[in-house]
Amino acid sequence: MKPAAPETTGTAPAPVGPLARDRINQNTNKKSTMKKAIALLIALLGAANLPAQGTLPAYTVAVDFPFATKYVFRGIEVTKDCIQPSVTFTSGNFNASVWTSQPVTQNLDNEFDFVANYDLPLNKDWKTTLGATTYYYPELDGSTGGKRSTFEPKLSLTGPLGPVSSTWTAYYDLTLKNTTVEAVFGYSVPMQGSKKDTMDFGATVAHVAVDRGNDYDYCHLSAKATFRPKDNLTVYAGVIYASNNLNGAKDNLVYFTAGVTVAF
């Protein structure tokens, strides 16, 4: 999920973030990328079948490996078909992760996000989270004015509203001087005949205040089937609808995602 809001150039506002602003063709071998992706997926599935040894450690490492038919960031389409693997380390109330988006059908810039969060429990149901993300675009041509790296702190509040989960977050990108206020809601229903597998539904509404460009609103709606054949293995597939009111940006986006998560 990447926060760096849009700026406008001339009369037509550009999509969100440096990556979408400065797309540059790269002579990369996408077949090689897909082969590496398939090899990593096979390795993850093999690791999920390793027998558990001893007690659980004081930390966990989760590897997520999804494919998406679009990369949509805050309601704005950035690229089409892409793999978006991530690795997350969690220990107590602290977690850190590395996430990347790698287009596989177009020669477009890739992206890496470095994230750190710390949870502060308020009671048994609610918590606040202090976090920050560094967005890094190694292939971006900085000579065009785009930022190869931006830094965005956040403050969020998470807790249930009856049967619905909720997260309320304020982001501020210190590099782009853009502010995003976002509310995310979720609801899960157990699948018939299963205690682990679920149908998960989500909704996001948000506003982006842009320092050098047009402010806009966006929303996401999602439905996902989640299967847990093992305690440390999750397989999922879903569909997402995204909309925005940014002038000049594509609207009414529908895309699909599927992936595997393995915890160690």
Characterise this structure.
There is one protein chain. By secondary structure, the chain is mainly β. It has one domain: Porin (Beta Barrel). Helices cover 9% and strands 58% of the residues. It is built from two helices and 15 strands. The strands form two sheets. Strands 3, 4, 5, 6, 7, 8, 9, 10, 11, 12, 13, 14 and 15 form a 13-stranded antiparallel sheet that branches. Strands 1-2 form a two-stranded antiparallel ribbon. The longest helix has 19 residues, at 30-48. The two termini are 22 Å apart.
Which CATH class is shown?
Mainly Beta
In whole angstroms, the N-to-C terminal distance is 22 Å
Strand content: over 45%
Summarize the helix and strand pattern as letters.
EEHHEEEEEEEEEEEEE
State the share of residues found in helices, binned by percent: under 10%
Give the biggest sheet. Answer: 13 strands, antiparallel
Label the overall shape.
globular
- Rg to the nearest angstrom? 19 Å
CATH architecture: Beta Barrel
**Looking at CATH, which topology would you report?**
Porin
List the domain count as a whole number: 1
Query: How many individual β-strands?
Result: 15
- The CATH homologous superfamily is called monomeric porin ompg
Based on helices, strands and strand pairing, what is the structural class? Answer: mainly beta
Count of alpha and pi helical runs: 2
What is the average of the pLDDT values? 84
Uncertain runs with pLDDT below 50, 5 residues or more?
Answer: 1-30
Topology:
Layout: E1 6-9, E2 12-16, H1 17-21, H2 30-48, E3 60-73, E4 76-83, E5 86-91, E6 94-103, E7 111-121, E8 127-136, E9 149-161, E10 164-173, E11 178-190, E12 198-209, E13 216-230, E14 233-244, E15 253-263
Antiparallel strand pairs: 1-2, 3-4, 3-5, 3-15, 4-6, 5-6, 6-7, 7-8, 8-9, 9-10, 10-11, 11-12, 12-13, 13-14, 14-15
